[in-house]
Amino acid sequence: MQHVHDLIGIGFGPSNIALAIALEEKRHTSRPLDALFIERQLSFAWHPHMLLDQAHMQISFLKDLATLRNPTSRFTFINYLYEKGRLTDFVNLKSFFPSRHEFNDYLSWAAEQFDDACAYGEEVFEVLPEEQGGEVALLRVRSRNHTGKLVERLARNLVVSIGGMANIPESFRALRNDPRVFHSSSYLQDIAQLGDPHRVAVIGAGQSAAEIFMDLQGRPGAPQVDLVTRARSIRPADDSPFVNEIFNADFTDYTFSRSAEERAALLDEFWHTNYAVADLELIQQIYKAFYQQRMTGGNRLRFLRQHDIRNVVADSNGVHLTLWDQNALRENTVRYDAVVLATGYAREHHKTLLSPLASYLGDYAVDRHYRLQATPDFHPAIYLQGACEDSHGLSDTLLSVTSVRTGEIGSALLATPPGIANPAHLRRDAAVQT
Ligand SMILES: Cc1cc2nc3c(=O)[nH]c(=O)nc-3n(C[C@H](O)[C@H](O)[C@H](O)COP(=O)(O)OP(=O)(O)OC[C@H]3O[C@@H](n4cnc5c(N)ncnc54)[C@H](O)[C@@H]3O)c2cc1C
């Protein structure tokens, strides 16, 4: 008979590492869970193609994998520093914001401690219902490893923590396989493969676009770099204290308890804390780079603000972008050797992975503990991390509430005896209609 895991976690990024930690720390007081995580990368890496040398965290190190849930955990960033022998030196930095390289090292250090619980190099592509007596009792999780081999596992419960998928604007979709056009999520890898492109466009006005612009402009080959944005300016992320309260763990209760309209209004009001904004310090560096250019002359760097991309054509000479200048009301076509799409992430991919379960899951609504609502004949619990912004607020895609959220999911999992009927019911007919 095939082994049945109590829990399978898809993805082993910060969200599921934090869950592994929370479950480990609950072992003293609860039954142990047989949990396995499946990660498509060959080993742990945190957004590896955006590990730029100058980049640092946008959030306090205290919002690590454990501290806000359990400050005495051995998995805190402070304990990581202590074990690495850097705690005192870090204090001398007087910073809440470690470099992204250091935070990646911290996350890797934590992930390594769960090597036995993670199958690396496997990508989950679908989850099937496993019926017993006409009801869904288990889930069959299907993945493919890096050699192409199919792997199937059974689980009583599932936690889907797969992060975001590259958001590619419609006008670039036909060029998905063109190595000269790529998303920021693969930036370091793809730019290295192009050698020294002379003329590069960076599309976007957020943190990634700003970081990539600064990285490119400082490269030894001194490429021509156009920063192309629809907006008039690059806006700073508002992380002032009262605004930052929306990222407090207890704000999740407030958000979840509001009506759908009120939640949408909250997202709208605070959108610019996280989207289409960059660190003020980085914006100042970019401004300085343009100022320097004004002093020395030349137009190697251009800020093509208020520009819409009207057409994209690729040929053997390059990628040609037809840009509409909203201000000058003029159209211009520019040839590039590379185009970097810093155009954000979509967070709907769980619906593709779970599509064989669609008739049980209605409109993929979650309860307060991130559990997908399902029909009464569907018994496994499925939790989502990082895909609940609409119901749980802007902190959901960030590290802000990760440690607390995984404590909540861990408790919910442990409170559900194996095989119990799903308490988060949908009417079956309602589920089928959507
Ligand atoms: C460049 C960058 C910098 C950021 N900096 C910050 C920051 O400073 N502060 C902050 O709060 N947030 C930041 N974020 C937001 C980011 O979402 C969180 O930091 C964090 O990575 C979320 O963790 P996660 O585990 O939910 O998702 P991810 O980190 O995206 O991890 C998901 C994991 O799932 C794996 N996976 C995906 N699909 C599958 C599949 N089908 N099968 C198996 N494995 C799969 C992926 O390989 C990945 O390892 C940043 C995001 C980016 C892109």
Report on the architecture of this protein.
This protein is an alpha/beta fold and 434 residues long. It folds into 2 domains: 4-164 and 347-433, FAD/NAD(P)-binding domain; 167-236 and 275-341, FAD/NAD(P)-binding domain. The protein has 15 helices and 19 strands. The strands form 5 sheets. Strands 1, 2, 3, 4, 5, 6 and 19 form a 7-stranded mixed beta sheet that branches. A 5-stranded parallel beta sheet has the order 8-17-9-10-13. Strands 14-15-16 form a 3-stranded antiparallel beta sheet, with no helix packed on it. The radius of gyration is 23 Å and the shape is globular. Bound molecules: flavin-adenine dinucleotide. The site of flavin-adenine dinucleotide has 28 residues, from α1, β2 and β4. Flavin-adenine dinucleotide binds at residues 10-16, 38-41, 47, 50, 57-59, 123-124, 161-163, 208, 385-386, 397-400. Belongs to the lysine N(6)-hydroxylase/L-ornithine N(5)-oxygenase family. Keywords: FAD, Flavoprotein, Monooxygenase, NADP, Oxidoreductase. Its cofactor is FAD.
